[in-house]
Specification:
Elements: E1 10-14, H1 21-25, E2 31-36, H2 38-54, E3 58-63, H3 70-82, E4 87-92, H4 94-107, E5 110-115, E6 127-131, E7 137-142, E8 149-153, H5 154-159, H6 162-185, H7 197-222, H8 228-248, H9 252-260, H10 271-285, H11 290-303, H12 319-329, H13 345-362
Parallel strand pairs: 1-8, 2-3, 2-4, 4-5, 5-8
Antiparallel strand pairs: 6-7
Helix pairs in contact: 3-4, 6-7, 6-8, 6-10, 7-8, 9-10, 9-12, 10-11, 10-13, 12-13
Bound molecules: zinc ion.
The site of zinc ion has 6 residues, from helix 10.
Length: about 375
Amino acid sequence: MSLIFESPSDYVQGRGVAEEIGTHAGQLGERAVLLADDVVLDIVGETVTESLEAAEVGAETVEFGGEASKTEIERVTDAAEEAGADIVVGAGGGKALDTAKAVRENLDIAMVSMPTVASTDAPTSSLSVIYTEHGEFEEYQFYSNHPELVLVDTAVVADGPTRLFRSGVADALATWFEADATYRSHGQNIFGGESTRAAHALAELCYDTLRDHAVSSVRAVENGAVTESVEAVTEANTLLSGLGFESGGLAAAHSIHNGLTQLEETHDATHGEKVNIGTLSQLVLEGRDDAFVREIIEFSVDVGLPVTLSDIGVENPTRDQLDEVANAACDDDETIHNEPFPVEPAMVRDAILTANDLGERYG
Ligand SMILES: [Zn+2]
């Protein structure tokens, strides 16, 4: 198997960079469609449209419906085609960006990824997570291209909901454990290749950055402040986590997340919040020592992340429910098989149960 590393062409991050989007996007095309929901349009709609028009890029907006589902992708594809767009700018959270990626693939145009929250590692990747219209995980869709440009305005991120910023920390925290598991097992990354040393090192840098800066960055975002820690963690949540998971590989944490989406009760928890339960369960599954598991639980609590099933809405889960989660997590297509040992549903169920108990004890 060959080593494969892929990434977006350009990454721009900083306070106020939304105003510069036209300068960068002007190199990509002449007519842009901005896809964002009504809340995000209120925040960045005018800035983005004015900046594009100042760079002589036509700009139309399409309001995002809220779910990265097949019907929504079809609707937005039709709207962008009708507008004659050669650039799609996806602005908002992971689902808006994932929808924009699908539209870009359908129309073979350029894409600008503009996360307004540092809540997931979706902005830099070339895959979409597709959900049903009811919010259940359906499948991953893989595309041949990455966004041409990823642009992150940290003033917008710091102004956003702290809960989503924290969720980004959780999604990024999983990156190192999953990339490292894949590296040790010589498993496959998202591109069907083996991890490069570069991807493995980026994933570790992601982890170190979070351990050094996450707590203070969350305090800053709570107050709408942009500090060096906010810049560091925004980069970790977005760029390092994005490159780290795609080129480094996913393992148990994200499969357990996908399993947890089977339970209706978890639908109000964010992606990152569910991933954190996946991360703690992965550590137990791998037999990490008590002190280390406790350290990660305490770090999660310091950041304000869930450490028990009840924290993500699942009170007193039945054995059947946990079996359902574990079975889904161990589907043949799941990345849990990147762990460096064979994984069976019973092992996963018991790891979730035990991680939950440890979370109750140390959380
Ligand atoms: Zn994720």
